[in-house]
Structure formats: C-alpha cells, structure tokens
Amino acid sequence: GEDVEQSLFLSVREGDSSVINCTYTDSSSTYLYWYKQEPGAGLQLLTYIFSNMDMKQDQRLTVLLNKKDKHLSLRIADTQTGDSAIYFCAETPTTDSWGKLQFGAGTQVVVTP
Amino acid sequence: EPEVTQTPSHQVTQMGQEVILRCVPISNHLYFYWYRQILGQKVEFLVSFYNNEISEKSEIFDDQFSVERPDGSNFTLKIRSTKLEDSAMYFCASISRSGTLNTGELFFGEGSRLTVL
C-alpha cells in the first residue's frame, strides 16, 4: 500500500538552511504537500507541488521533487526560531481522491540560536 | 483570509457517550474532509464528503461514525458511542477551488481534541 516516510528529527542553527526529506511509494501520486504543525495547533499548508513539476519556490521555501526516486524535499532558507515545528509530508494518490492525503509521521525541526 | 473553523477546541467525554464535532469549511469550497491524529501517530484520513454524500471513507470510519452537512455552512462529525481509542485530535479540511476546478490546496482547521475517559 501507499507509504510516506520522513526522518523524525532535524536540528538546525538559526540562519542556516534546513532540508527536510520525504520518500513515498505510490508512483501515481499527483499532489505532494508540506504542512507545518506548531505545538497544540492545526496543520498549516506551507506549499504543495503537482507531480509534473520538479521544483517550486515560494519565498524562503523550495520544494524539490524527484519522481524517479520518489523523493520530495523541503528547503527552508535562513531558518528562524519561528520555524521550529513538526513538518509533515503528504501525498494524494489520484485526482479521483481529491483531498485524501497519506501523511508521513512528521519531522520535528528544532532551531537553535 | 478565509479559514476552516472547528468547535469545540477540546471536549472531554465519558466512554459510551455521543460526541458531535463541528466544522465550518471555507465558504466557496465544495469538498470536505475529516482526519484524525492520535497522539504521537500519523494524521489519518477518515472521510471525504461532496454533494451531500460520503465520497470516500477509510477503514477507521465504521458504523460508529457519521458525517452531515445540516445546513449551508456547518459540517459535522458524530461519534455515536465513544471508545477510549477514539481519543485524538480531529481535523476538518476543505479543498479550495479556482472557478470550477479544485486547486489541490487542502486547508485544515485548528482541530478538536477529543478525550474519552
């Protein structure tokens, strides 16, 4: 079945770049997402990419998609303490299942001063 | 900016009681969803709803669960007889549209934390 895997933890110094990685198994994935969850809060949509794209940039965020390796990454430039959170990778398998997302377990990002 | 709103933010209930969680999706959205996140576990899809009926549901969404859109704004999740293992954060979501097309952007509410004692 479909599975989405992420590393569980990332520590980064303030001002450095963070790279969060994600792999998925479903080759028919259409949309791939990154969500941010701060403690006790909901899921904030950061960015998403359609599977026919290789890259998407949005201010400090860069998403890279390698469809061949089924690998998705999120780069955060100039990481700030406010970026400390759990980051979830998710994918939706087909356009017939709009909004039915398969989530990874989340990567806890800790930004140190 | 429009957002998905959920109530209550936290509900404590006794095992066996009925619970209704409420959501107000973003106004021009047509597809609605419930997800749950048990503490320390992945976010899991429960059900999708479109045109006043369930379009897809997961194995978790058994006969104890039901969804309803009782009016033009609210979208509810009912758990008929809660069990201890229903304790989780429940997220409502809706997908945005551009004209007649879904954009793929799925927006979540802040969640309703359900604690079953």
What order do the SSEs of chain A take from the amino end to the carboxyl end, as H and E?
EEEEEEEEEEE
Low-confidence stretches of chain B: none
With helices defined by DSSP (H or I, 4 residues minimum), what is the helix count of chain A? 0
SSE string of chain B: EEEEEEEEEEE
What does the radius of gyration of chain A come to? 13 Å
Distance between the termini of chain B: 37 Å
Explain this structure:
The complex is a heterodimer of chains A (113) and B (117). Chain A is mainly β. The relative contact order of chain A is 0.34. Chain A has no helices and eleven strands. By secondary structure, chain B is an all-beta fold. Helix content of chain B is 0%, strand content 56%. Chain B has strands at residues 5-7, 10-13, 19-24, 31-37, 43-50, 53-57, 65-68, 75-79, 88-98, 101-108, 112-116. The radius of gyration of chain B is 14 Å and the shape is globular. The interface between A and B is medium-sized, with 24 and 23 residues.
Task: Record the SSE blueprint.
The complex is a heterodimer of chains A (113) and B (117).
Chain A: E1 4-6, E2 9-13, E3 18-24, E4 31-37, E5 44-50, E6 55-58, E7 61-66, E8 71-76, E9 85-92, E10 102-103, E11 107-112
Chain B: E1 5-7, E2 10-13, E3 19-24, E4 31-37, E5 43-50, E6 53-57, E7 65-68, E8 75-79, E9 88-98, E10 101-108, E11 112-116
Parallel strand pairs in B: 2-11
Antiparallel strand pairs in B: 1-3, 3-8, 4-5, 4-9, 5-6, 7-8, 9-10, 9-11
In short:
In chain A, the strands form 2 sheets. In chain A, strands 2, 4, 5, 9, 10 and 11 form a 6-stranded mixed beta sheet that branches. Chain A has a 5-stranded antiparallel beta sheet with strand order 1-3-8-7-6, with no helix packed on it. Chain A has no helices and 11 strands. Helix content of chain A is 0%, strand content 54%.
For this entry, give a set of tags.
heterodimer; A: 113 residues; mainly beta; six-stranded mixed beta sheet; five-stranded antiparallel beta sheet; 0% helix; B: 117 residues; seven-stranded mixed beta sheet; 11 strands; 56% strand; globular
